[in-house]
Amino acid sequence: MEYCFILGKNHALSISEIIHYLKNREINFKLLEFKKDYAIISIENIAITHLINDLGGTIKIGKYISKDFQFRDVFNKYEEKVRIGLSVYPNNRKFYEELKQNIKTQFKEYKVKYKIVSSGYTNTTSLKHFEVTKKLLKNNGKEIIVIRSENSQKIFLTISVHNPFEFKKRDVERPKQRPIFSIPPRLAKILINLAAKPGDVLLDPFCGIGTILQEALIMGIKPIGIDKDNKCVQWSKENIEWIRKIYSITSNADIFEGDATKLSEYFENESIDCIVTEPYLGPPLKFKPTKKEAEEIIKNLEKMYAEFLCQSYNILKRNAKVSIVFPNFLTKDGFEVKVDIEKLCQLSGFSRANLLENKKTIIDADKDQITRREIVLLKK
Questions:
Q1: Do 172 and 166 touch, CB atoms closer than 8 A?
Q2: Does the pLDDT value for residue 78 go beyond 80?
Q3: Which end of the chain has the smaller Cβ count within 10 Å, N or C?
Q4: CA proximity to 147, closest of 52, 1, 73, 40
Q5: What is the mean pLDDT of the chain?
Q6: What end-to-end distance do the CA atoms of the chain give, in Å?
Q7: What is each CA distance from 358 to 16, 41, 225, in whole angstroms?
């Protein structure tokens, strides 16, 4: 069956997450098309309606129904009144208006009262995911997704939508916060999906207040967290207890104070399935650094990264993966300054896995973000 995935703002990271999620679970699939806004994938044997809850970078999933819109493909019986939303990808106002007129004509032919819901945002031919939830799903409405390329057109029916309020709740409502240093739950889930699957033992050696641990726990993965800061350890435990209560989770996370550069003291060789982590990325910066300042930050971190990865190699099982964030700077004088990842691999024994075909690094950062996140997947 064909499905369309409407991707989040970092489309490269979003599609990489989907691909690795499916591969890690040994689910048969074929990537049919991938553009900035969407991906079309043929997938076999998957509970697709629940998939949206496992993904951090996908905002909608639609099921293929036809090449052209037909009333009976969407509505299985005659209804007195219908509520429908229309999203066209990529953005194409002329085609959008033509398709909307076609839908209106069919509704009139079937003598059905209707309301076509449009986006509240200008210069767009697609509904935001929260608009679909608020304006359609809560009112028994349906959304039609139209993927149109030069030579083809495909109609999908939206079957699941990302709920941004769940991520927000897990971020801002948990009892302990570290706004400057914490990884967003969205990105935590993406990192997990790059390396882990349900039942795995996942280690976060820089667990902070437990964001990666909580997302792993929700997904049925066994999380272990350590941190050098005892306060972070205690706060992480409080946040995990809160998550367990909110989501009625019976399993738990193991969390203790420890040093990520001494992992062999805490774990036996080849005992961990995967490592998912965002290490210390350097001091918080108010302004873009100069090239010299950025290089000094990286230099001060290199020893810690090298020792941590060498220790990680020992405790990980064969073919295990490390999903990790490195700091990356665009300096005020126009240079990119980053960690020498190849050098770290040579020292530790890891190889770099592709996030996408021929793509081993993806940057995740807002436009004005000073310390950018460089996402890397390592393999033992």
A1: no
A2: no
A3: N
A4: 40
A5: 93
A6: 34
A7: 12, 19, 32
ω into residue 205 within 30 of 0, thus cis?
A: no
pLDDT, tens digit, for every residue of 335-364? 999 999 999 999 999 999 999 988 999 999
Say what the pTM is: 0.94
B/e letters for 144-183, b = 16+ CB within 10 Å, e = fewer, are bbbbbeeeeebbbbbbbbbeeeebeebbeebebeeeeebb
Contact 214, 240 (CB under 8 A): yes
CA-based nearest residue to 349, from 374, 313, 311: 313
**Per-residue pLDDT band at 108 (split at 50, 70, 90):** confident
The full length of the chain comes to: 380
Cα–Cα distance, 18 to 58 (Å, whole number)? 8
The amino acid at residue 53 is: N
Q: For residue 87, count other CB atoms closer than 10 A to its CB.
A: 28
